[in-house]
Write the structure tokens for this entry.
Amino acid sequence: MKNLLVTTPIRPIPTNFPPIGSLSLINYLRENGEELDFYHIDALRPSYEDAIAHIIELAPDVLGVSSVVSTAYAYTKRLVEGVKAALPDTLVIVGGSLAASAEVLLRRTGVDLCALGEGEKVMLNVVQRAKTTRNPAEFSDIPGLMLLDGQGNVVNTGYEDQLDKDQLYNVNWDDLEQASDISTYISPAFVDGKIDTWFESDKRCFEAHRQNKMVGSLAAAKGCVAKCTFCHRWDKGIRYIPPEIIRQRVQELIDRYDVGFLNIVDENFGTDVKWLKKFCAAIKPMDILWRVAGMRVNCISQDRIELMKNAGCVSILYGMETGSERMLQVMEKKVKLQDNYNAMQWTVEANMKTVVQFVVGMPGETPSTIDESAKFASFANSLESDQRPWDLSINFAQALPGTPLYEHARRMKLIDPSLDGEEKYLLRISDHDAADEQTTINFTAYPFCIQRSWRQRLQLKTTYHNIQRYGKANYARMLLEDTRYFQRQTSEETGYFNKPKQEVERTLMTDTLHDGRDEQKLDNQQLPSFFSLIRKRRLGLALLCYPERFRVFIGLLPYYWFLIGVRQNGLLPTLKEIYQWLSGDLKKIRGEPTQSLRKIVFKESAPPAEDTPAMASLRRGR
């Protein structure tokens, strides 16, 4: 029997984040006597035709599709339909966050089974059952699945028991080497003498014995203690991998790839202080420098930062999301605004790299809450004179299936609650992330032209505050040194400064005035003139270089976005939305909540009449 697991493309180009979920699943099946071949489409990026041809040639009996993001719907649908057209007897099971849209997948794409939550045990049971039958209805006694029974009814078999913490993310790196180019995931820390931006603030990174070391990634936990209303949650609670097991896995990366720098890719690192102390004690003797990709602001203190830094930590990112107490309530962050301020101040004072990350445009967002966020960002990005104030990650709230935000949108009819409406929305957001302004829904009681201006408003206020505090000369110096925005003229066409901008991480700041990120080649050490940038229509770069000039026009940003709205949506719909706002109807249509969306959606409103009862647990999330 032939079993195959495939990934789907996640970003425009492959990221350096290993597919640890898929690798763990493959290894789990192998340890339990079943083989699972791996076709890593996300890394290989074959054409659709080549991907289909390859799968057809392998002719798997069971095909697992790892769709870890809901924005993979269009690709998943096309892939499954192509496979089913050629191999109708292949049993197709889809896992990952996209499976929260199980009914759409089952009724609109030809998918046979959807895996709910953690996939290792579920996939093992499916593969073993498929040896005797491929009729989806005959899998209804296996926990962790959604399927259609013989009468076409949606069946939810509940959740499978979770893995023990010592089994989490137990991967075999041979599988990744055989399926892709390992250099995508294990890369040099230094390129042409320049170090990865996340490690640049710590002097230890430049010690002689680290110059040829590689950067790798590992997970230390799975899950989260919080349930933010915009975040999809499969895992119940959080499980921390025992520190001794992590130490062994880090040692393997050191021995195998000469890794000296580590990305810890948890979304909720170090909440358990006892575990954190044991982890730091285990990793400190290894003399490895590491960064944390996700930590809660109410789970950090000056003592914990000192503990982590002494053990080799150089960077901590936090899911702050907002600088407004009101929006923290809507998001159900379960932290205080002062926690955000404390985390930034303590981390910057410890000379550790961090970045303010915002989710804007949630229901209830207003110009006042945006200005509160701007006040916080101005504080956070001007604590030291060498901070780059434009280092802001600003995404619009994106409604993803399995979240209160998505269900709020369905109840407010911002997403058509019917099955057809849900599929239309999934197709709309396919291959678009939360930074994309073109596909995001306006959840607020303000018109498009005001809501879309908030990202530039945040950027302008934050950068202008830095100039006021430290001066334009200091600001220009830092900006000229930031190779994500400028390239120097060189005599050679190779090297760091000539790397395409799409190869550089784009999470910090995007050009939000038009598609893509501006880049400018320099033949001197001066910023391009304001008027030359305007003449070349490099508006995003002009805003970045000269915030003090745009600052006086900040109130005109909605007028710019009004013109964009007219171009995209037409004059009459744009004017209608503005009239609804002025008349107060927009607030009635979209609401302006001040409390958790979870309470509003699941306690104070009824589900749409179109909803299938079997989908209820998926819509609530865990």
The two ends are 34 Å apart (CA to CA).
